[in-house]
Amino acid sequence: MQEIKLKNRLKQHQKYLYISILLIAVYFIGSSLITPKITTVTENLTQDVIQGNLNSKKNIIAFEFNKLNSTLENSRSILQNTQKNTFNSLKEKLLFTADLALEHHSIGNSFVSFVDNNQGRNTHFFNIKDTLYQKEIHTILKKISFKDNEFLMDTIIAKKNGVINRKLYAKQLPNNNIAVIGYDVDLMAFWSYYSETYKGDGGYTVVVNKDGICLLHPDTAYIGKKIDSYFNKVSINQILESVFKVNGYYASNNVNTLKDSATSSYLGLEVLRYYDAVNIDDTSLIVVVNFPVDIHLKETKKNVREYFSWISVLAFSTFMLLLIISRVQLKKEYVQNLKVVEEKEQLAHVNEKYQKENAVLQLNQLKKKVNPHFLFNSLNSLHVLIDLNPELSQQFVLKLADVYRYLLDNKEGNLITLKKEITFLEQYTFLQEIRFNKSLKVSIVNNCDDKILLKKIPFLSLETLVENAIKHNEITKKNPLHIKIIINEDRIIVKNNFTPRKVKSKDSHQIGLNYLANTYQYYQIFTFKTEVLDDEFVCNLPYIA
Predict the structure, then answer these.
(1) pTM metric for this prediction
(2) Could you tell me the residue ranges of all domains in the chain?
(3) Cα 5 to Cα 330: distance, rounded to the nearest angstrom
(4) Which CATH code for domain 340-542?
(5) What residue range is the signal peptide (predicted)?
(6) Which of 44, 144, 204, 543 could form a disulfide linkage to 455, CB 3.0–4.6 angstroms apart?
(7) Cβ proximity of 253 and 238 under 8 Å
(8) What is the pLDDT of residues 387-436, one digit of tens each?
């Protein structure tokens, strides 16, 4: 009897052997046909990576140059509100701002001057005792010509010991006197800091101003000079015209980024140059990112082909190893099966425990994910709001504090009453509506009495759905996002107009929706679902208790 069983198993496994060999042959034939397509897709993906690298570098440039310009902007803000300050108060604020500028690693000199037109007297405050520097400033102050009672200078000066970006702002005060503040940015020191801070293999970055003068280049010999060779085919005007301004920042006006191919005198290699612009307060800078073609395209395609060949060999080896192991196992006795009833009970218990632990884990992941991203966006909104509307900014801070108090609450379990969740959602949407201005509208429609508000739903469920809508949909003045939360007796319906973003969010991992699905599955409720109906994203959120 045992020999008959063994023979049957041998025949069965022999059949599996022939099928496996056939599958291996099909696999290798298919791989030879698919490899060219994979190469094309890889090239497209590489282009996407390069585009992402360009955006990253552009954001870094905007951040660093705005920091260099912050002292000038702070001084301008102080001088434009002189009616609220006495002379001594104004002087102390400007001197403090000038001293604070020197804390930046790339700023070497700063000064504050007051010109008394009534008595013909000048008062100068310098942070260093460099007589040559002081003479230069005196000469500049004599040549100041005002337009609209103010004067702004942002110029590049090449010196024997380096290149500086001299920034100066002068304002005519109500008493006809003149207040001036200025400082020098050491562009060589700035390049040293930049190159040490932002290392990587994603090509090298060149930054020029609107006049074509180089401000940042890995070859410091170019800094402070015009580099016309970069703009033979793509002009600076073309670059500025290819972007448009949104909320004070430049964004791409078309799908195809301006680019050009050239031979880099710095690397001695063929490079792809991508051009874009960033806004720095009242001016704009041109960012040119250079990517070596051999490294970022040809080498990548070559590597993909090699990797695919290795995968094919590995797949073949794996198939053969599995066949050998399966045939060796024919000589062994199979282990006795566990009782079906006991296995089902054990499996059900383990599955229930897993679902509960998984829901709690995803809730913790969701809270960790919400905290830094939401805080970063909120602080950016608050930064803009402080100057525009101080009273509203105070409300903003209080709402933000309430939101984080709710998020950081170490509550037991992962359920919350509908009333508390709505109160939290109102605070959360208050912050988001300020961030997106009139482009976001969240409304809550309650069709029930107060008893329904005592029912329980998953913690952060409404916030999760609102955040999901914000993250995955276009939000612009032309295409505003409307989110509607309808409270019924048996469930909550959350819907929004469905206008998905063209570029998906890189940090999207579906944590929020998975958390909700696992929570309802744990409580054996299967009516939770999300779907797109008539250009609307709709979520049915049932009550749990």
Answers:
(1) 0.48
(2) 2-44+309-331, 45-308, 340-542
(3) 10
(4) 3.30.565
(5) none
(6) 543
(7) no
(8) 777 787 778 888 888 887 777 775 656 788 999 999 999 988 988 888 88
